[in-house]
Amino acid sequence: MGNFSYLQPGKPAIFKDQYVTKVNECLLPYSDGRKGDIGLVGLPFSKTSISPSQASAAPAIIRSILGGFSTFSGEQNTDYLDLKLLDFGDVDTHPTDIEGTIERLYISVKEMLQKNASERYIILGGDHGVSYPSIRAFKEHFGTVGVIQWDAHHDVRNLDDGGRTNGTPFRSLIEGGYIKGEHLVQVGIRDFANAREYHEYAKEKGVAVYSMGDIENEGILKVIKNELARLEGLVDIIYLSVDMDVVDQAYAPGCPAIGPGGMTSRELLSSISLAAAHEKVIAMDLVEIDPSKDFRDMTSRLGALAMLRFMFSK
């Protein structure tokens, strides 16, 4: 056998097909001066979750799952192997200081935006509470923000019964003046999943609310198309906030607040593709995936594919 060795210190023993490029091969660690197509940051924080959650583990899992997808889209007949996904890493959260960590998340997203290293951004949570500091940073950097929120819940709970949680981000954003109610669109709100108080709060603030019943009657693509057309003349940018519990528990078992009667995985993916193709859509956050509750990484895989639909839509 001579001196040949099959040992590869520091390298994983992974089969490599010379004709296949995996999406994780497009990940590049950010360094000063480096430019890319998409900026990626992880906000691994889920201590504000009302339901027990380890969603803080999701960013690392989703990054690894990107290795299960190729860069070639047969439907688009396009290979995105040259796409550069700049990875800004995960924010170092504080072990006990919740408000301090929320401030860290805001500062970190703002720092990423100030680098002007990419044209579009993906933010990996974490629970939905991370959307508050993230959208706040986008508002201060870009101006008026419109938000399309895929969610089973309104997430406008009061702050008196527990402070900032994953149920309060959009109340915090509206009352903090970071977004206007009429610039927020909620799609997939599930029946028997919210209190009357929060349904009425959303309506009073001018939020465009589409329940799963509305989605069934009108169709998800029609709803997204109409709301994009309405928002485009009102805001400077549009931010997509995807809470994975909008998806039916059959397709996303790894959410802390699973439930029946939600969207199919295909409805989620097709609606993200449509929205992400709009010129004013520049960011998407992906939240509420708890790998410890998942089955065969089903929810993380769907989240990773949602990322690809956003990344490869333009």
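The record above closes out task 2.4. Task 2.5 opens with a second protein, given below.
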Amino acid sequence: MDTWLVVGLGNPGANYAGNRHNVGAMVVDGLASRHDLGSHAVDRLAARRRGADGAAAFKVHKARARVVEMRLRVPGPKLVLAVPLTYMNVSGGPVAGLMKYFDVPVERLIVVHDELDIEAGVVRLKRGGGEGGHNGLRSISQSIGSKDYLRVRVGIGRPPGRQDPAEYVLKDFSKAEKAELPLLLDEAADAIEALVEVGLVDAQQRFHAPR
């Protein structure tokens, strides 16, 4: 049975839990919650600030990641949901380790990450391409020796005024953004499921269509 690896990027620790840069990890936590595998990502923000561990269903893997296995349907392909326990800029090590352990080829790797160059609240899908200055993607590409993995790009928009993008991504979502965050996490989780179920082209037609 085909196995997919779905990696949500972020930084570990309570101080980073609500950052825009952690939206990839939030999406993966939300997908686990959808299938009764853990607490909802939004609800977990407060718990993580209190120093609580990740959702109970996730186990710490030797590749330095929180991992849980699931199926979208039975019978159906297995999904390994993972959130690296390393900092963003060294995400590649855990991803490479998990790909080897679960025998996942690059074409069945899905990386979920924040994207400055996409309007806030918008989800876009692609395979391959550059990293656009994203340190997590750069680390993964270097560690696995390929850029040809699938990406679920979660738009956070550009910072206002002259704010440094590096500072912007490490800030929590604004109050207005938090109100819309559950919808954004759900849409990104839908996109992951679509990639697995119908493939990239059909998923792009669905999620890239004008709304």
